[in-house]
From TrEMBL:
It comes from Cylindrodendrum hubeiense. CDD domains: fungal_TF_MHR (cd12148). GO terms for biological process: DNA-templated transcription. InterPro entries: XnlR_reg_dom (IPR007219). GO terms for molecular function: DNA binding; zinc ion binding. Keywords: Nucleus. The keyword Nucleus applies. Residues 12-221 form the Xylanolytic transcriptional activator regulatory domain. This is Xylanolytic transcriptional activator regulatory domain-containing protein. It comes from the Eukaryota.
């Protein structure tokens, strides 16, 4: 189907092809990415046809630009994609309903909800204050499961309104749960970030409670589902990571760690979580080192625990990289300043750093965050050596057991992660030529672009 579309409207797909070749080159060896990047960037910045394919390509290239550290370009191209999508009417059920092919109609629905997702992530990540789609009336229905889409067996879709009305009476697609989480973020989390450090305690509790409630409603079988290669449901696991990340984001913000606060700031400025004057004087940081900031710690350990499943770093979206950095901060805060310099906690921090390091083989932004985390740990190790060694066991033995329970140390039966096989430049050229010939299947937004 895509081949026929390209044959009939080759100019309409020229930007899509440029984007695919550029992004594909990021995951390959022995290819000069610069020329492919320049061509895709030039096209993204110039005049483009107003089509759903252009919206998809703009969304993908803005995520890739973020992964390479071009935040300004990411924002500009996302806004361009959003305006084009609303001009086309992707938010309306009638847009997808007008398409005779059910797979293409599903692709249209996914395009709108992917914009909804990434716009929300950007709003929280960069503290933009507001996101247009939060208050846009959308009637387009929710996407189906990934395996249904890949098999081109599209079920009757449901709307977000139907999802909310029927609640836990049945199971829904991972996309449906993800869209509901983003709705919660827009209604309860973003307003807290806008208020600042003086947010109402009841509003804070309500936002956290809604996220925890969302986590509890997820069907257990969906968390345990793996594909033939052993990988988890990437849509669901991105949603889980976002949920834990939102809990952490709220706590960091309320304790003064704003949008510009990074790991080097934690090392330079001291602890984020300070003792509360509301606690009895008998309670001390020494005897209860994580009485303060415990919600942030829970979120961080739960997020790190996701990587005990087969969650390949190359498929973890660059949009979530800064969320992983924020997950490291409560752990580093405990290790550097909370008196919990134990091997177990250090291992959890290193796990997060190594996940980012692996992702950094493709995305410079992840590599930079990994280096910051490792540098913070190395600095702490140097201090420990000067002071006579690392703490082991002792009064923090209970926390060792708690951390091990939340995040088991043994992550894999087999060592390492599976990566996309490298391609030579000849293979890339052959692949590009095949894409321009007739072939089955519509343009799809794949899981790694979550």
């Amino acid at each position: 189907m895509m081949g026929r579309l390209i044959e009939a409207q080759s100019e309409e797909f020229s930007f899509m092809m440029a984007m695919m070749l550029y992004v594909g080159s990021i995951y390959t060896n022995n290819i000069d990415i610069a020329q492919l990047r320049d061509r895709a960037y030039d096209m993204a910045s110039g005049p483009l046809e107003t089509t759903v394919w252009t919206v998809q390509a703009l969304l993908c290239i803005c995520i890739a630009a973020l992964g390479e550290g071009h935040v300004d370009l990411c924002g500009s191209w996302f806004q361009k994609a959003l305006e084009m999508a609303l001009e086309l009417g992707l938010q309306n059920k009638s847009f997808a309903d007008a398409e005779d092919d059910p797979v293409l109609a599903e692709s249209y629905r996914r395009t709108y909800w992917a914009l909804y997702l990434h716009g929300s992530l950007r709003t929280v990540r960069e503290h933009l204050g507001h996101f247009q789609l939060y208050c846009t009336t959308a009637t387009t229905e929710l996407p189906c499961e990934e395996w249904e889409y890949q098999a081109e067996d599209i079920p009757t879709p449901v709307s977000l309104k139907e999802f909310r009305q029927q609640g836990t009476s049945r199971d829904y697609s991972s996309w449906a749960y993800l869209a509901d989480l983003i709705r919660i973020s827009g209604e309860s989390v973003v307003p807290l970030l806008n208020v600042g450090f003086g947010a109402d305690s009841e509003a804070i509790d309500r936002a956290d409670s809604r996220i925890v409630s969302w986590l509890l409603q997820l069907p257990q079988w969906k968390k345990e589902l793996v594909d033939p290669e052993g990988a988890v449901d990437m849509i669901l696991y991105h949603a889980l990571g976002i949920a834990h990340g939102l809990r952490i984001r709220i706590q960091l913000h309320l304790h003064g760690a704003g949008v510009q606060f990074r790991v080097p700031d934690l090392v330079r400025n001291g602890p984020i979580f300070q003792p509360s004057s509301l606690f009895p004087s008998s309670v001390t940081t020494k005897s209860h080192p994580w009485m303060y900031g415990s919600t942030a710690l829970q979120g961080s350990l739960a997020l790190v625990g996701l990587f005990k499943s087969h969650l390949p770093p190359e498929k973890f979206s660059p949009s979530c990289t800064l969320g992983l950095e924020r997950a490291a901060m409560p752990l580093l805060d405990a290790y550097l300043y909370g008196g919990i310099k134990t091997p177990t906690l250090r291992d959890k921090i290193m796990l997060l750093a190594n996940v980012l390091r692996k992702a950094g083989e493709f995305w410079p932004i992840a590599k930079a965050v990994s280096e910051d985390i490792i540098e913070a740990l190395e600095g702490a190790t140097h201090v420990e050596e000067q002071e006579g060694g690392e703490q082991e066991g002792g009064e923090h033995g209970g926390w060792e057991r708690t951390i091990d329970w939340l995040v088991p140390s043994k992550l894999y039966e087999e060592e390492g992660f599976n990566f996309v096989p490298p391609m030579s430049i000849e293979q890339m050229n052959t692949w590009g030529g095949q894409m321009l010939r007739p072939g089955p299947g519509p343009v799809k937004i794949e899981g790694q672009w979550m």
